[in-house]
Records
---
Amino acid sequence: MSNVTLFGFPRSTFVSVVGLILTAKGVPYTFHDTEDEMYLPIHLQRHPFGRVPVLQHDDFMLYETSAIAAYVDEVLPGPKFTPVDPRQRARMNQWMCNLNSYFYPEMIYHVSHERMVYPELGIPGNDLIVQRAMPKVIQALEVMEKELSDGRPFIVGDSLTMADFFLLPTLFGFSLTPEGKQLLPKFPAVQAWADRMAALPGVIRFRASLPPRAPIPHAREWVHHHRPAA
Ligand SMILES: N[C@@H](CCC(=O)N[C@@H](CS)C(=O)NCC(=O)O)C(=O)O
């Protein structure tokens, strides 16, 4: 029986980052769906900020995706996704920070939530929030396109690193929005990277393990808690 449990809800991009890394390493894990528990004491005990993912390994509980990813790659068996070379490792960390600071907030919080998550719950999306985010989305894609423009297969170079797994779910979530469909074809290196990632056996296995895409009921609360001001 697996002694690794991943807590989260299936549409979460950060939960997918951890799921992708565990799957690519070949680590069996149990997925615990927190959809109905997000605001209950049982979940706040796992994550005092009420977010996901949370990882349990034996009796060790850990939250925050970057901390979880580093722990998983260091401690659990399977291929390593952290470069040994300090400069490559620093570049990987830089790209994980890029995702956290410049990609996820704009592409997911501002665009995907307004275009997909809220409308799926009957809550109208706010065009102003999307329009305000778009210059920053374009800047992020331009930076990524430039990084990949020397023909490297992965974001840090020849080898797959955790940074690729950090970027993929956010880029995928954005690609489903009208803005993503219109914009991404203008970034051929980013598109080629996404296609290359989608063809990796671990990514195929992880995606096949997900339930069919469904609305996120607890996202109704986000309107009150953390929707950006229009
Ligand atoms: N800094 C956190 C961010 C995690 C995060 O924002 N997760 C989102 C899902 S992608 C979440 O928990 N949202 C649930 C909510 O706000 O109710 C990390 O890296 O783990």
Note: The pocket of glutathione is lined by residues 12-14, 38, 51-53, 64-66, 218, 222 (CB under 6 Å).
---
Amino acid sequence: MPPLRIRTFSHHCRERYGQTIGKIPLDLGIPCPNRNQGGCLYCHPASFTPFSLRPADSLAEQLRRGRHFLLRGRFRRYFAYFQQETPTALATDRLMPLLDSVLEDPDCVGLFLSTRPDAIAADLPAALAALVERSGKHCLIELGLQSIHTASLQLLNRNHDYADFLDAVRRIQAAGSLELGVHLILGIPGESQAAMLETVRTVTGLGIQALKLHHLQVIRGTGLHALYEQGQVPVFTLEGYLELLLELLPHIPAAVTLHRLWSTAHPDLLVAPRWQRLTGQLSQRLHRLMEGRDLWQGQQADLGGLLEERS
Ligand code: SF4
């Protein structure tokens, strides 16, 4: 049997739930705390807000519209995806009833909470773990890290460091019952391929369940856009990015689900790179390249683990 080239989100869902599962983005209307410090250099909320999402709507209405416009009969079941801003900036005692209400729908299989490492309140992991155990559903916390390298975090104006991330990881994992994912950006100015590989290997060595890789995109009106106009932001060609993925993927353990391998943004807001390809086309091309070179996710990472076990 040929190896699984990439553990994609849809593969993971078919394995765990016996079917593919949709995602409905939801917005609690909580501004990200990092905006008070200028926000991340690359961030423009409109670039990742789906057209169907109206933040002023109640959660019930957001879910109704999400089911209508995004699931569209393709998926019966879904994850409630709190990806806008920093949802865990809301106090735990106010957040939990909202999450509880979303999980009441039998078609909702669980929660994705996308957040910052420094926005995991002391009481949050235990409260979420209790919710997971009570509901029998899943909860994946996605921590935005972007890079383990201090210079990169400073350049991006993340206003947290790698130690904050490790602290959040430790507390989330200690709570049990929670799954952990990490967002990384590839192509941060000044980072070599070796630096990116170091980030990927370090983070996936922490026992995480999910990873999102994004190529750096320049979005209109951001601080990154200003730097790009000054010629200070190299961006990937499509071929260059595919070659990078071919280098990195074998180092990612086979058990880690890759929720994303590239960024997407509204075409009106995207300055660069403009590859003019749909994500499905990118996936097909990557798979063909992996087959042609006989590469698969985990090829190097899992080999390293086996050698350590034997030594
Ligand atoms: S932490 Fe997230 S939402 Fe907040 S400014 Fe950065 S990228 Fe934007």
Note: Residues 262 and 281 are 12 Å apart (CA to CA).
---
Amino acid sequence: MVAKEMTERQMEYLEKAREAAVAFAERLGHAPKSYVETFGCQMNARDSEKLRGILLSAGFTDTEEESEADLVLYNTCTVRDNADQHVYGRLGRLGGNRKNHPERIVGLCGCLMQEPHAVEKIKKSYPFVNLVFGTHNLYAFPELLFRALTEPKRVFAIETKTTVLPESLPVARKHGFKSGVNIMYGCDNFCTYCIVPYVRGREVSREPEDILAEIEHLAADGVKEIMLLGQNVNSYGKGLALPATFAGLLRRVCRVEGIERVRFMTSHPKDLSDDLIIAMAEEEKLCPHLHLPVQSGSDRLLKKMNRHYDRAHYLGLVEKIRAAVPAISLTTDIIVGFPGETEEDFGDTLSLIREVGFDSAFTFIYSKRTGTPAAGYPDQVPDEVAHARFDRLLEAVKAGAEERCGRFAGQEMDILVEEENRQQGYVTGRTPHNIVVHLPGSKEDIGQIVRARLTDPRGFYYFAERVMNSKCTVDSKSIAFCHSEEQRDEESRQL
Ligand code: SF4
């Protein structure tokens, strides 16, 4: 069956799932409620929006209270062992409460479900889990939901490669004003510590026309900010019938009317092209933020990690991107405790952090993932050594990030307001550089881009004051201040 037919078949199953949900509601005595929880990355968060879209379309209502849900679905992650343990812990709690919910459907999906040992464990130790499906089965969720609603036996569906992309099905976005858009699935890089290529499969790019059509549709629906998603967006286009590059795609996305900000995640340093750097400098809608995972500052470890670049290459990229976009915010991922890491290797990582001056970094202790090459390396770093290095790493990242974040003090910026703040009379949003800003406002501001002056740096975030009728025309990609240093000092004294 070709992909189009399989998608059409799912639309038919959605109709059947609706009928089955009506029967489910009769058994329950109320309209069924569903609770979807996302573990892990932005790819999973986007998948969960699709899962919720299908559930709502089938007649479920959303609840944020897991305890009152008639269907609980965990969209799992398996990049680190603690992500696995977290899911098992939560299942244990659900199992303890199942007397109160004899009809409840408990489902598991996502990356952990691509691991055969995890599926075996669910089969044996968690008999109340009645729906399990993998990352490649997301497109078939209407059919699987129908089966879970109508069949007495447990439903397991785990494919090992992507046959149909999970597109063209209903989506329930978390935010009305911003949205992730998958441009590709899977990864071909096989970094030696990473489980993703095994659980998400090989790289598959979507056709540019399909991506653009989705973004045009989102823009018509009020979306202002787009985040293009992929495990390695810089290699977008491989395998498509007509040649396409990520830089070319970005430029076309920036032309979509109504879209005001474009972001992307995640970039691999080995595939970051000059064309992309030029596009970042030239395209106004492209936000001046680049997340560029370095993982280690040691050439020896980068080689063992199979990253295909060295420290000098990474630093060269940083130089180029800062020359093109001076105010860019640079963030990264760093692993400590990779097998064989010596004090000298770790010192190289610390010195790289100081040399680059990251705006922020996601820091991780290496987690052994069964099936990856690094899991078999003999020289695993003892836990206490890895933890001690992790603490030192955090200090280095924090010190550098506070200094970097403070460079925008006094500058006016456009803030896309995302939510109300817990502090009454305040809202929270982000600058184009992805820095969190708290400013006076109300819920009517959510989804609006408002002008504000960043008055009060607090390490990783700012407090700001709103600016009406600003005459300042600051280019967010170059470093420019609307006020003199003296004015700024005076203002900060008044705070
Ligand atoms: S690029 Fe490396 S770290 Fe990133 S998903 Fe692929 S294998 Fe994992």
Note: Residues 192 and 305 are 5 Å apart (CA to CA).
